[in-house]
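Entry for zinc ion complex. Fields follow.
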Amino acid sequence: MSNETSSIPSTYDFIAYLLDKNVEEIIPVFDVNCGFRYPYVEEFFHVDSSHTAEILDVLVEHDILDRSLFDKILLCPNCLSANIRTIYICPYCGSKFIVKHRVLEHFACGTLAEEEKFKKNGKLICPKCGVQLKKLNDDYRVAGIWCECTSCGRDFDNPFVQHICLNCNSTFRFEDAIYRNVYLYRISERAKRELKGKFKYLLDLKDALNSLGFECHIKQSITGLTGISHSFDLTVAKSRDERRFLIGIDLAVSGSILDERYIAAIFTKAYDVKCDETILIAMPQVSEDARRLVATYGIYLIEGEDFSKIKEKLISHLRKF
Ligand SMILES: [Zn+2]
Ligand SMILES: [Zn+2]
Ligand SMILES: [Zn+2]
């Protein structure tokens, strides 16, 4: 009998991958064609930039990542490209041929006039008192700005803003623009807490089993015969002699409730996904009642206080596969 485990990597494997790279924050990287990208997500899940948002949303929903607002991005409403040019146009005739005029004020004499009237031989000279203007906001300031359209000749204060998509060539205005939130993602406090406790043991076991040629995933979801999806703390698989073996491992660290319902739940999911072997690791141990049940259900039990000894026991038990 062969078991097909889902090929989608589990979200916890993703966290393990990030930590392996010493990454606690997933920072978006600007890309002129597709806006912001998340290269770590693309690389790990083998998706292109258009699919990273839905994956990150799921991770946030499951409280594995937290997100915070990082930036805003302007996108073309037609093709979603971020490769956009901005121009200013005349609000009367729509021409882009407008001239921007500045009105300068000379502090010493109080003269207010268009910049053009100050310009003389590459210098700014006050048309009234003849003194040279030296430093902006020191001896003079820009008192105002106005625009003049060279197509229709009209004057106005502020032009309209228009965007041109350099990908699909469509033009659009602010009203139609897509102006999207861009988030930065961090490994959540909950995920970090799990890392401090049980998760670090799972990572250690996963690495050890991977190096022994087992395929190993943390909290991977597997669909059972009933159609219900289950997950073990570790799902271990190995193919040998055209057979694929599936081993489900749960790890209970002190503080976990190990009553009969817990044991029955392990048995139920192992039965539904057709595990070849089901293992319960209890640190430090289970109760007498639980131990009897574990034996009845045929679950292999490893108990102990010392993690390295537990790891040794698990590895030697799995050598038969
Ligand atoms: Zn002056
Ligand atoms: Zn005009
Ligand atoms: Zn476009």
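NOTE: The chain has three domains: 1-81+175-187, 91-158, 188-321.
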